[in-house]
Amino acid sequence: MLQALDVMTTLAGFTCGLGEANPAISHFFPAMGPLAGLVLAKILTVSLIVGFMAYRRIEKWSFVNTCFSLLVIWNSALILLRLFHVA
Length: 87
What we know:
The protein is built from five helices and no strands. The chain is mainly alpha-helical.
């Protein structure tokens, strides 16, 4: 769910004129395009999450969820600021 929200808020940010802040992700954009780059990043992220779950690393799972929750909040805040011409 958080991965889908991250993709949606990132794509919404692109339509508002915002860019990708993560250089590891934005590295894929010139060759693949934004959507394909995001999909590749999500595949890698979900693979890590499945690995954490397989080895029962619950503390790592919680950390990843916390990070992506904060990322979705950050993306949403930037979009709102851009829409209200603050940023």
